[in-house]
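Appendix B. Extra example for self-study. Work through it before the problem class; the solution is given directly after the inputs so you can check yourself.
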Amino acid sequence: MTTTTATSPVLEASGVTMRFGGLTAVRSVDLTVNSGEIVGLIGPNGAGKTTFFNCLTGLYIPTEGKVSYKGTVLPPKPHLVTNAGIARTFQNIRLFANMTVLENVLVGRHTRTKEGLWSALLRGPGFRKAETASRERAMELLEFIGLSHKADHLARNLPYGEQRKLEIARALASDPGLLLLDEPTAGMNPQETRATEELVFAIRDQGIAVLVIEHDMRFIFNLCDRVACLVQGEKLVEGTSDVVQGDERVIAAYLGTPFEGAPGDEEVAEVEAAESGSGAQSTTSKEGSAQ
Amino acid sequence: MTTTTKTTPTTPDAPRGIIALPQSAARVLVALGAIGTIASTYMSWTWTAEFPGDLTYYGSPAGLQILALVAGVLTLLYALTRWNIRGLNWLNPAGATAPVSLAAASAFAVTWFTAIAIAVDLGGLANLDPGAYVAIVSSLVALLGALALPSPGDTFKAWISKPDTIPPAGRIPAWAERLVVTAATALALIVFAYGVGVDPDASETFIGYLLLVVLGTWALVTAGLADRFSALNARHKGFATSMAFLAAALFPFVENNEHNANLGVNILVVATVALGLNIVVGLTGLLDLGYVAFLGVGAYAAALVSGSEFSRFSGVQFPFWAAMLTGMAASLVFGVLIGAPTLRLRGDYLAIVTLGFGEIFRISVNNLDGSSGPNLTNGPNGISMIPDLEIFGFNFGSTHDVGSVTIGRFANYLLLMLIITAIVVLVFTRAADSRIGRSWIAIREDETAATAMGINGFRVKLIAFALGASLAGLAGTVSAHVGYSVNPAPYQFAGSVPPNSAFLLAAVVLGGMGTVGGPILGATLLYLLPEKLSFLKEYQLFAFGLALVILMRFRPEGIIANRRRQLEFHESEQPDIPEQSLPDTTVGATKAGA
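Solution. Structure tokens for the complete assembly:
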């Protein structure tokens, strides 16, 4: 995973379209992630970001278009995609709640170990060796995200921020070449967000490309080498943080376009009066101004 | 009384109990009551031998009196622990009140139940002899004394639950620990053998036995002894397991009676099958309502190659190892055939489809009789006159003398079945603690996330299904020989006679999902209780349902709880957290950047 040069593409999605009946959730999206890159995917709620993620990871089979990882077209099955080298986290945390922290990461090792039922029943030396190796690797990852002291806790008992981190560790356990993070900082406070930022940089430094969906713009623009904006299923713009930040269409998609006729002076004055009035006056006038 | 005062027996101003008495008086009352109860069991309780167990003798306790005697001794011992007597501290490490009150309650329950049963059975209080009066008075005294002990809390629950802090056990040498495990196993064997040995007509005795076992075990649990014992077990896992199997193997020698050996072998068959089902339901989370069909496939396969003259292949007689493999292979194939199309479904849909496939097996077997279908299974008549097994010249049908003990036919099969149970336990524990077992649990927890972690859900589920099926088939091969014949009737979804899918599922859920001991205990209880409580007759299914409802209300994780499950259902108590680290105030400062 570290052998690839800085320019070779890890993920190439071309013309990915996902239709649910008559609804087109994702329309002909092209996206490339190069090795050693952190790419952000932003867009208002319902823009199709998670659907696009699901198309990439095989949870959905795209209606049209193809997704390839390091030059080979990905099979349309989630476990085969993971096996190929793409790991993901989920927007709403999906840990194995009643397994311990260590076991969660061990499950992530599944694709990189081969021991089947027979070797589990016979318990030969190969089984023991593989099991110890898995445990060591898992503990390494827990060390990396800073949860090794909680290895024996049940995942459900971790605080929210640590659950998010554990999900990342679980994804990293499959030794991916590309990590897809679906809103990794949702529900986090500023310190936690900053810690996650550090974590993502550290992951990138290990040679793993990262594609991240996020609503926190400061987080995205700090982190990403490139950002793509998805609106109503279509890719609106792609480029460096500055380009996307300055793009009027992106701002419009998030904040809405101004009216054809901009609000007149009298309306502005009215609003200002109401606002200043409500600050000083009693609650009854506040109610009045609210109307 | 919200203070959580640790009630040490010597504190004079300790909080008082429900009944206002000085603590020393309360202690004396409990001890006196216990001694009275013990003494009463050496007296006659009733005048006629008509009451089960014959309680008419002076000088020798019998039937329910033995149970009262045990309860009395337990109460006395726990009463003495309140005096801080050296050498008895291990019985009640926390010096808690709950074990004393529960032990007293067990003596009270047994004696009062007996007295009431005598009065009801024989028609009137006139049938009670002086001994019974002594018993009911002294057990009441003991209970009142226990209630006068310092209150462990302000709710009723505090009287029957384990105190929060139990001092850690002092270290004893490893050989002593093993000795404790051995002694406890022997005790369990004696208790179990006594219960099995209760005459089926003496339901009164069995109810008394249940009262004593439930309340007595509860007392030991609240004293913290169960926790200590399971810690010992965990330290000497292999030893404890072998002791348990040794105890089970000794059962036919302790309880040398063919009827009870038959009971034992049937319990082992359903327990083994329930353990196989536990892989599918408990570990992988697939609700299989047609599981008993796999037992049937194994039994029929073994019957067909057994050399029975009613078998379609009456000339063929496989040696047992080959018959066993045939049964397993047939169940495996059937499991894969059913699993492959159905395992694409999830949740309720899977349950309904497996229910349907289970019924398909029974109906097919019913119809493969030569008139409504090809002749394979001899239809509803089934395959009878299955010859007894013979392995290395050891005929399972005849009796054998081991020393002074004669081992009969069912005891032979009991020992064989025990080996098979051991194999299944080994398969279960090894499979559960491995890469494949983790992927099963991951699928149970969240199938989508599991597949996204690279687990081939369908394949892994199919392995669980096939493994469960072949283990049931294995048990089926023995059960065909034990029962002399196979017929389609028992392999149904629900019925009043044990091997049926609902029964097996209940054994797993009742005992505890995902554990080894759970399904075995569950199957034992579910098999033994209807057998011994024969007076229930047509209300058996009703009682069964009622028991399930009560258990699900108060202990949804099953009697032997998996650590995970326990946490799932009793969220607030969080018994698992090893040593709680300080609340994380510096969540942001992690090693992430390192």
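Self-check: Chain B is about 60% helix and 0% strand. If your reasoning did not lead you there, revisit section 3.
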